[in-house]
Amino acid sequence: MEERITDEETFGYYLDFTRQEVITRIVSNPENQENWDLAQKIINMEKDSGFYNPDNWKAII
Length: 61
Prior knowledge:
With about 60 residues, the chain is mainly α. Helix content is about 60%, strand content about 0%. Helix 1 (about 10-30) runs antiparallel to helix 2 (about 35-50). The longest helix is centred in the first third of the chain and has 21 residues, at about 10-30.
């Protein structure tokens, strides 16, 4: 059974880690559309959960 993250601080930590990983992948291989699609999904999730900050994405936007 998959465990859900319910702690806001822990969720923020995993979100930061995932965001940085996707940004690193995009910077190193900007032609890979899958990474851009993943970034868009994460941005949408951040917006839905109230964690979105455009400054976090300025390296690729």
